[in-house]
Structure formats: C-alpha cells, structure tokens
C-alpha cells in the first residue's frame, strides 16, 4: 500500500457495456477482533518511489453506471463525487484533515479522531490481526498477480487482495481470475489517495468508484477495505461504515517496497528474517502487509508463502466474517 501512483496516462476508452442496475448496499457488519491499543511494527509511512502505469482502461464502462452517473468512461486519478442516497453527511464524524505524516494537530491524538496512520489507533470494527499469521496484498491487480496466486494454489491456501479501481479497469481479467480462484477481493480505493487529507466528497468518490469497478468486473460489492498508507481516522471510518464496509489494517508491515529503492539497502533476506522474527514474537498470529503490483515484491510473497507461511487464512476467515456484502449472478 505504500506505492504511490503518480505517472498515470489518463486516456480512457469509452465503450458501453451492460450490467445489472446500481445496487443498494447493506450495512451488515461482521465480527472483528475487539481491542483498544495494540503493538505494531508500523512507523510513519514515507512517500516512496513512483511506479509508472501506462496502460489504459480496457473494461467497458457499463450502461448501469452511465445511467447512474451520467458519465461514459472510467475516471482518472481524481474521480468525480456522485451523490448516493444512503450516505448521511450528518453521520460523518468531524475530525481535522491532515496530510500524510503531518500529525502535529493535538486533536489527532484523541479517541475522537483515532488516527491509525499517526498513532496506530484502531476502533472497534477495525481488523488488524488474525489467529494465523496471514499475508495480504495491496495495489493490484497487476500483470504479476496471477503468478503470486499460482503459489497459493501450490500450498492450497487463499489470500486477500486489496485492489485499486484504476488497476481493476486495466486488468479486469486478472481481477476475475483472482476472484474465480477463491481469493478474497477487497477495496484499496480508486486511485490510492491519502484519505484523511481529502474532503468528505472526495473520500466517498474514492470508495464508490472502487466499488463500481469491482462490481462491473466480477459482480460483487466488497466488505473489506484497506486505506492507502494506513490513512484512516474516525471521519474516514464513519464514511466507510455507511457503505457497510470495514477497515483491514495490519500488525506486521513487511516493508517489501523498500527493496525497490537501493538507498534503503533492504534485501529479500531481510524481509524473510523479519517475518520469521515476528512469527515467533507474535505466536504465529497476525496480518502481514505486502504488495502484488511489482514483480520483486510478488516474488518475495511467493517465497514467504512457500517456505514460511504454508497455512494461512483470508481476512473473513480471520474474523469469522462474510466474503462480500453482496454478490450478483
Ligand atoms: Zn497501497
């Protein structure tokens, strides 16, 4: 989730398609671990290297989405806010907006704000750990995702993928195959923005377009949501809950993305050693943060799955929750 997407060529293909009408969302929650504070390996996240993405959307823009939004093509990095009748702005908790790693506002320390990115604060419905240490992957789908999932086939385990809307519409077949193989598809927003720095409307837009990309591709509405950069506070949560979704955080960050920048001097073996140490220290429990957008981090994910964590759970298995809020067809 720490991979910043900036170089995005915003040309889009306008093709009309057909799909079911815009679905209403339920707000059913599933059980999640309840806890106050917890120890994590998380440190303030630096904005790291840029990853150029040059492909255009290939997923047809569905007719039901044109009917609902009045638009005819997938948006770029700044998706438009479309009003939704089930969102009550009076239920959105008012916390100060802040940018990534700018945590000096004392309000952010309070339980009212409960900032995870600043102070590792988790709320009652956040999922951040698991009875079995399990991998999760952010920022796909990518051309490397299925290679990663082949490894999970070999160990007969499933994983959880937190996907970006902009990448779903570029790699819809990868998304469909990942889902068809039984892996859990979660949302990681439309275009990887740091949500606590956005307006309420911009946050809603990041979530709604992500859900629409998932629904248009595989006919389901996600339950599980991972905020980019761990950027979540009670304002973001109070919006997320109105979509019926729950935040999934982590208690072990592999910092796999640091391998991509030689100035970090982080090697594959460093990641493996850190995983093994955490496994011992945390009694083989936990949720790990990894990325499936880059070949190098995918190869590390495969190695961890094959040689360290052969038995794993998906996020709904971790908490006894549902896979999706709703599936169609
Ligand atoms: Zn991410």
TrEMBL record:
Membrane-spanning ranges: none
EC number: 3.5.1.41
Keywords from the UniProt entry: Carbohydrate metabolism, Chitin degradation, Cobalt, Hydrolase, Metal-binding, Polysaccharide degradation, Signal
Highest taxon, organism lineage: Eukaryota
Protein name, per record: chitin deacetylase
The organism of origin for this protein: Spathaspora passalidarum (strain NRRL Y-27907 / 11-Y1)
GO cellular component: prospore membrane
Catalytic activity: [(1->4)-N-acetyl-beta-D-glucosaminyl](n) + n H2O = chitosan + n acetate
Signal peptide: 1-17
One BP annotation, GO: chitin catabolic process
PROSITE patterns reported for this sequence: NODB
PANTHER family tied to this protein: CHITIN DEACETYLASE 1-RELATED (PTHR10587:SF133), GLYCOSYL TRANSFERASE-RELATED (PTHR10587)
A Pfam family: Polysacc_deac_1
Cofactor(s) demanded: Co(2+)
Domain named NodB homology: residues: 131-325
GO-annotated molecular function: chitin deacetylase activity; metal ion binding
């Amino acid at each position: 989730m720490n991979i910043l997407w900036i170089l995005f060529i915003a040309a889009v293909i306008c093709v009309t398609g057909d799909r079911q009408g815009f679905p209403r969302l339920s707000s059913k929650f599933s059980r999640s671990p309840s806890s106050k504070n917890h120890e994590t390996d998380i440190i303030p996240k630096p904005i790291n290297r840029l990853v150029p993405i040059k492909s255009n959307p290939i997923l047809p823009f569905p007719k039901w989405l044109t009917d609902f939004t009045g638009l005819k093509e997938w948006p770029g990095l700044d998706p438009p806010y479309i009003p939704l009748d089930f969102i009550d702005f009076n239920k959105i908790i008012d916390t100060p907006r802040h940018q990534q790693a700018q945590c000096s506002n004392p309000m952010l320390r309070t339980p009212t704000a409960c900032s995870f990115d600043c102070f590792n604060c988790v709320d009652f419905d956040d999922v951040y750990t698991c009875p079995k240490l399990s991998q999760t992957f952010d920022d796909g789908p990518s051309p490397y995702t299925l290679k990663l999932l082949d490894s999970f086939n070999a160990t007969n385990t499933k994983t959880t993928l937190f996907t970006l809307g902009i990448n779903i519409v570029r790699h819809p077949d990868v998304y469909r195959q990942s889902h068809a193989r039984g892996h859990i598809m979660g949302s990681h927003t439309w275009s990887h923005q740091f949500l606590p720095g956005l307006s309420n409307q911009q946050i809603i837009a990041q979530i709604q377009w992500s859900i629409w990309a998932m629904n248009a591709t595989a006919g389901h509405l996600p339950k599980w949501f991972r905020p980019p950069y761990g950027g979540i506070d009670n304002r973001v949560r109070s919006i997320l809950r109105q979509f019926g979704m729950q935040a999934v955080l982590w208690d072990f960050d592999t910092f796999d993305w640091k391998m991509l920048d030689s100035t970090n001097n982080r090697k594959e073996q460093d990641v493996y050693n850190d995983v093994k140490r955490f496994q011992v220290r945390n009694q083989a429990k936990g949720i790990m943060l990894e990325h499936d957008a880059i070949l190098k981090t995918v190869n590390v994910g495969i190695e961890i799955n094959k040689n360290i964590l052969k038995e794993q759970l998906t996020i709904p298995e971790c908490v006894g929750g549902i896979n999706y809020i709703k599936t169609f067809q």
